# Entry
Amino acid sequence: MYSDLFNIENKVAVVTGGTGVLGGAIIKGLVKAGVKVAIVGRNVENAMLLSEELHDVGDTMIFQGDVLDEGQMDQLKNAVLERWGKVDILINAAGGNLPGAVIPPDKTILDLNIDDMRKVLELNYLGTVIPTQQLLPVFIEQNAGIIINISSLTAQRPMTRTAGYSAAKAAIDNYTMWLAVDLANKFGEGIRVNAIAPGVFLTRQNKSLLTNEDGSLTDRGKTITDHTPFRRFGKPEELTGTVIWLCSDASKFVTGTIVHVDGGFHAYSGV
# Structure
């Protein structure tokens, strides 16, 4: 039946950045769809809270690890294989920003903190490359695997201030397309690589930048919603449908694609 194309029940997924707002929402959606999920993050307390919330819904495991540590990511691979015997899906949701890689209105690029810039590039870019490199041998051996990277609307439409984050996510887009082609050419169509570019979603990191204490929008928040045809921020759970589609056979001929989930922000010229 047509609905079977979207069935991802009993697949095994690894989600890095699983203790963040977006990563957590993705995990909830996957578990509700019948996927067994390894929650990967540095904040084990948040991971435990999420796992407990999903205890009666589906099967999860917690792995406390740093996506920039090759040894820990290798241990992650072994732990998941020991628990479930396979890995079907890798979602690279780990990422973030640092104050020194942001250029506020009263500063210029000359004030960029190179150390923070380096950390942002490493976390977002190498924090995607390293987990992929460590888990990829499993996909190659199975001749099957789904890789979903998390990009951003700022990758192709750079926003003011976010110099480091925008550059890192642009690298994710390039890596996604490059890796999709390379794997297809060398290993066939069994391994697919795509990315999701979320629009602006309220998270712990940006809430104070986009909203006031009374819940009203800041000037920056209003500028963003004015440039979003849906006139609002995204809700984390609204990523779920796209994730399930990319993980399922319904997208079997889709690879190397950046899917925008942004309420029309990327398509809008402002006119």
In short: The chain has eight helices and seven strands. The radius of gyration is 18 Å.
